[in-house]
Amino acid sequence: MIPNNLATSIQMYNKIENDFINSIEQQYGLKFDKHNIYSSDRMYSPSEYINFKSSACIACEKGIDSRSDFLSLKCNKSCYFCFNPNQIDFLDNTQNIKKGQSIANHLLKENPRIQYVALTGGEPLLHKKEAINFFQRIERFNSKIHKRLYTNGELIDTFILKKLKNCNLQEIRFSIKLEDSLEKQADILEKIEEARYYIPDVIVEMPVIPKTYSHMENIITTLESIGVRGINLLEFCFPLHNEKEFIRRGFLLKYPPFQVYYNYWYSGGLAIAGSEEDSLKLLRFAKQNNFKMGIHYCSLANKHLGQIYQYNTAYPIDKWFYLSEKDYFLKSAKVYDNDIHCVEHVLRKNNLLQYNKNDDYNFLEFHPKYITLFDMVNIDIGMSYNIIEEINSNVFIKELKIEKIDQKNFILQTI
Ligand code: SF4
């Protein structure tokens, strides 16, 4: 179907979104929380923090000069929410262990200006020698490169902490597993406390699982007393496998799952309803209690930003597109059918000739900053969301969504 007006175009995208929702519910049996709908404003709190947010997190949001890699996906834990099993070649990657030095060489060759590197897993410390080799190689190449390690902490000891310190590791991110016994969690907290003597930034990173709010409040209070640099509260996600564990716990999926539907790289899947609310509540709790450590909430939408930014800044863009500072989508104002003539007339009268008129698809698009020219005109204007894709060396602009805008109250900075 070729949409020939704004309403049919919006309908077309609504159908795609509904088909996606239905197929997820049918395939996994996990339901969306349609009683608690996220409006686009409410949806968009991708990253909020108090006191401190790692510079590596800031770099990750644009994905420039920042990379992470793994030695193996093998892990000493088996978290039901782990998103690794959903990756291509997961089994091979649990059996094969890459050489620390060669993955470091690969990252450095790919981008000699790289500024942030991370080693993740699986559990990287199952291969301590290779993990050290990785960081040593990076350090030898350029000691200014920020190095960080993700670990569930079980294999941390004084010996490895000293080795990591000698590699000039700047940041270590522990995860605390709420499914573990309290004794085990206390053991990880002790290791976190010890790490502070060796690594400048000791951070905890964990998903905020609905129905665990009080436990999380206790954890962040303990971390504050230990004196860690911060905690990253992750939006809890369904990793598109192991659905029985999510259904058994009574979780629902956040609805709608995305502000803009797309095939995102990040394999963390779909956000679970309620995780964002609890994360923001923890942030408020820390603020009210004058916490000194950083509390940073990182939503699923935040994890998608780097991909969108990289795609949409890889090529020069046409003059009728606006690169949104908010979500990095390319946006254009779009009119159809009978409204085209009126818009073209006004744009030309104002000497604005950089618009795109498409007779085949019967639309005209122009830069959103000119929408205010039409605040008193009775026409339908849509906001089109686009991404640049490269397929077989050909570059395309792909429209992902269109929504009707209210031109009377339009403010460019809000899109
Ligand atoms: S500790 Fe991390 S890598 Fe290991 S199973 Fe849990 S989520 Fe996956």
UniProtKB/TrEMBL annotation:
<protein>
    <submittedName>
        <fullName>Radical SAM family protein</fullName>
        <ecNumber>4.3.99.3</ecNumber>
    </submittedName>
</protein>
<keyword id="KW-0411">Iron-sulfur</keyword>
<keyword id="KW-0949">S-adenosyl-L-methionine</keyword>
<feature type="domain" description="Radical SAM core">
    <location>
        <begin position="61"/>
        <end position="267"/>
    </location>
</feature>
<dbReference type="InterPro" id="IPR013785">
    <property type="entry name" value="Aldolase_TIM"/>
</dbReference>
<keyword id="KW-0456">Lyase</keyword>
<keyword id="KW-0479">Metal-binding</keyword>
<dbReference type="InterPro" id="IPR007197">
    <property type="entry name" value="rSAM"/>
</dbReference>
<keyword id="KW-0408">Iron</keyword>
<dbReference type="GO" id="GO:0016829">
    <property type="term" value="F:lyase activity"/>
</dbReference>
<dbReference type="InterPro" id="IPR058240">
    <property type="entry name" value="rSAM_sf"/>
</dbReference>
<dbReference type="Pfam" id="PF04055">
    <property type="entry name" value="Radical_SAM"/>
</dbReference>
